[in-house]
Write a structure and sequence with these properties.
The chain is of the alpha/beta class and about 400 residues long. Helices cover about 40% and strands about 20% of the residues. The relative contact order is 0.11.
Length: about 400
């Protein structure tokens, strides 16, 4: 037992001494080509992210998108992936595929290429169309490519289990596949891509074979999860962590750097396929207002993302979700949203890149949030700075023109 502890302790001390010199790779970009200087700068974004259109035919969709344009929207963000439990687009052709994508693809199961039609309709009405696409959660690959699955550490059993977060970004084959899928979206004629909020690692994820091998190659000793978490306790049948070790913070910084390097490559390849393509990245509000929690809970860190060619940082500032998670009243949530906007502007350093996303429906009961309440959310954002805005809807008839005009 004494020999075993010393075997762990000595490499641990060596790691702390030399972690700053561990292999790193800085993200650097070439100067913007001169021909890009002639591209007209976008006006402020007013986007509608549609979880599910209320339309069941393309004729109805034509009217729905025309109404969005009339309300002041200039970008429509549409879901182009389908995982188990997702609802099918009402105007999509019937398909035998239970999971897959809604665009032309030679490497993913196609439910129906609705994206081509949506782009055509959107452009006719003067709307830009963004494809909202998943990353780590692709159920069609989860089921048939088990070697791509990520592993997580079970705080209760102290064993590894398959990660609920999805596939393993440390696996080179999966990286190559994901880049190829995004290149297919880029050449579809779409104006932009919104990267789903699953490009994250939770605090117990990232223990797949490829990740552990990469860690060992970087630092010269094995990644042992029992050395990362302190004061584990149980509440309501779930396991929680009160504190993390110094080694945990070194590990998540290393893991975050890997994700940032992959994201940089993913965006480069997508924009290489379509040079005028815009890319937005979903960010959790904790990443902005509490960077330490963002790094621990999601492996998101704005400072590691600033040098990547991200056009919009899409902060999920969902006020009712905040009220539930933080036990806040409406005024408390509105103040937090204003703080998130101000802090986000400072962290990103460019107001044109900050896209604040608000919920126009209640996630729990699926009812539309009253216009007066939604107006207060928009005004809380406006008070903190003139940034771009997106509202998330799900087949309801939110028409925010009366207060979007004031933004």
């Amino acid at each position: 037992m004494i020999m075993y502890r010393s075997q762990i302790f000595i490499p641990f001390i060596i790691f702390l001494l030399f972690s700053c010199s561990a292999p790193t790779q800085q993200i650097k970009h070439e100067a913007t080509p001169l021909e890009n200087l002639s591209v007209k700068k976008d006006k402020k974004v007013i986007a509608a992210q549609v979880l599910l259109f209320k339309s069941s035919t393309y004729e109805e969709l034509e009217k729905e998108m025309a109404a969005m344009k009339a309300s002041g929207v200039n970008i429509v963000i549409v879901r182009v992936f389908h995982n188990k439990g997702d609802r099918y687009h009402g105007f999509a052709s019937q398909s035998k595929q239970q999971t897959g994508v809604y665009f032309k693809s030679s490497i993913a199961p196609v439910i129906d290429d609705v994206l081509t039609r949506i782009i055509d309709i959107g452009h006719r009405h003067g709307l830009l169309v963004y494809a909202w696409m998943t990353t780590r959660r692709m159920d069609w690959k989860w089921s048939d490519t088990s070697k791509w699955r990520d592993s997580a550490y079970d705080l209760k059993t102290k064993n590894f289990t398959y990660s609920k977060g999805g596939l393993d970004l440390f696996n080179q084959d999966f990286q190559d596949y994901l880049i190829s899928v995004y290149r297919e979206i880029a050449v579809s004629g779409v104006d932009g891509i919104l990267i789903q909020d699953d490009l994250v690692y939770r605090h117990t994820e990232g223990f797949g074979d490829a990740a552990r091998l990469s860690y060992n190659n970087s630092f010269g000793f094995a990644l042992r999860p029992e050395n990362l978490y302190k004061d584990i306790y149980e509440k309501d049948g779930k396991q929680y962590v009160r504190n993390y070790t110094l080694l945990f913070w070194k590990w998540v910084e290393w893991r975050n750097q890997h994700i940032a390097l992959f994201l940089d490559n993913l965006i480069r390849e997508a924009k290489k396929a379509s040079p005028n393509l815009k890319v937005a990245l979903n960010l959790y509000y904790e990443t902005v207002i509490n960077p330490k929690n963002g790094l621990a809970w999601f492996s998101q860190d704005i400072s590691s993302l600033r040098n990547i060619d991200i056009d919009y940082f899409a902060v999920m500032a969902y006020h009712r979700q905040m009220m539930k998670e933080k036990r806040l009243n409406l005024d408390g949530a509105l103040n937090m949203i204003s703080d998130i906007t101000r802090i986000g502007l400072d962290a990103i350093g460019n107001k044109d890149k900050l896209l604040m996303k608000v919920q126009s429906i209640d996630w729990d009961n699926r009812e539309a949030i009253p216009s007066d309440e939604l107006k207060m959310v928009f005004e809380a954002i406006k008070r903190a700075g003139g940034v771009s805005l997106a509202y998330v809807q799900n087949g309801n008839s939110v028409s925010p023109k009366n207060f979007l005009d004031k933004m």
